[in-house]
Design goal:
Structural class: alpha/beta
Number of helices: 3
Domain Transcription elongation factor GreA/GreB N-terminal: 5-74
CATH architecture of the largest domain: Roll
CATH class of the largest domain: Alpha Beta
Order of helices and strands: EHHEEEEHEE
Strand order of the largest sheet: 5-4-3-7-6
Keywords: DNA-binding, Elongation factor, Protein biosynthesis, Transcription, Transcription regulation
Largest sheet: 5 strands, mixed
Protein name: Transcription elongation factor GreA
Family: Belongs to the GreA/GreB family.
GO molecular function: DNA binding; RNA polymerase binding; translation elongation factor activity
Distance between the termini: 29 Å
Oligomer: single chain
CATH topology of the largest domain: Chitinase A, domain 3
Strand content: 25-35%
Shape: elongated
Amino acid sequence: MTKYPMTVQGARALEEELAHLTKVVRPKLSQDIGEARELGDLKENAEYHAAREQQGMVEARIRDIEGRLQNAVVIDVTSIAHTGKVIFGATVEIANCDTDESVVYQIVGEDEADAKKGKISVTSPIARALIGKTEGDVVSVHTPGGILEYEIIEVRHV
């Protein structure tokens, strides 16, 4: 059984999505299917087939979320003592050793990753290079364009 690490915020977002799908989307689709059924011949009823297809996708997503939440390992980084070490859930400021350009990332679970929001998956090359290192360390990140070196400026538990 696969365990899914996630932050408290990530678990909350999945719970909210699940509630929306089960309490809003599912009943609406059932209503749409019922209305489409009333239109007549189901063989050539595009509305009916579209609603059924959408229902299948929604039900699959509901099962996926339920499975992920059931197997989630929710980690509240704010309850872990700050040691300066990069751990799951930590927010890390790193600086490119060549350009001095700094960037801030939070290391999160795969479902939560969104690079535009500064959230990177724990399985990403940068996160894998950072995990276990401490403030002041220089890490090498293997990228398609070559090896990049970053210095860990600050680790925060927020």
